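Follow-up to my earlier ticket, as requested here are the two runs.
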Amino acid sequence: LGTESISFQPSEVAKIGLIIYFAHSMSLIKDKIKQFKYLIRYWALLGVFVVLLLLEPHFSICIIIGLTMVIMMLAAGARIRYFALAAVPVVPVGVAIAIFEPYRLQRLITFTDPFKDRLGDGWQIIQSLYAIGSGGLFGVGFGNSRQKFMYVSEPQNDFIFSIICEELGLIGALAILALFGYMIYRGIKIAMNSPDTFGSLLVIGIIALVGVQVVLNIAVVTSSIPTTGIPLPFFSAGGSSLVFLLAAMGIVINVSKYKRQPLL
């Protein structure tokens, strides 16, 4: 097997590595996370990773990691008001990053009305919406998608949910969303029953990672947010992403073997 056939995304390691580190560190400081001087340390570390990912560049992973870490910090007991204050400088910086990069600015412009450029930048999202709409209630049948042939580009990757909607219809799409919802629910139950804070925060981080990616991916393919590269967990093609995601779920299953003992 030649080295040319092997690809690896360092950002996938960063996602799981940060979750493990944040869970371990916050489990040690416990209620101190409510103090601003401790919370800002995690913000600084997160900022370093975000800058490195922007240099890659990988803007979508920055969004995923940022939201996942925020959920973990809030679950650990951080005060919401500190995040509200932090949003004041962070939001303008995020907007600037999106505007000053030409291809990101073009995506924002296309998002406002993709039908203005049907054969250009609006093509992908328009074809995605056609696929979703043509699925109807029960879909055209498994494997019978027409939009995946030369219409929806790379249908096995970020826009696979639109093909699912076309082939399985509204009923099939809702069934898949229900499965994701049940998995997130079970993850929360595992986190609540974890015997220690580390295991609880670890599971919350992994489940948040999956949930954030699901929400953002579906928002992209339905044109609810501007187009960006976010895979649908367990469905989108991608070697390193799937490997690390399965490894993370293995961690969740391992934590589920240990339950908090009732007080006597």
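Run two:
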Amino acid sequence: MKKDVWARPEMEVTFRAELMPGKSRDERTFKVSKVLWNGRVLLHGFAGEHRESEFEPLNFTRKKS
């Protein structure tokens, strides 16, 4: 695996709103279960491989409510 990957296992990622219209941020947020060699990720509770561009940009300063 590359060292400069965009995601890590167990971190939360949120699908872009236009990919899941009508869903709240919480409904679009999933945890990464595995980062694949090609940079795509597998998610807990959501099937398929997903690439970085499907998700909102990561914001490490955002506080959870």
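The only thing I checked on run two: The radius of gyration is 12 Å. Let me know what else you need.
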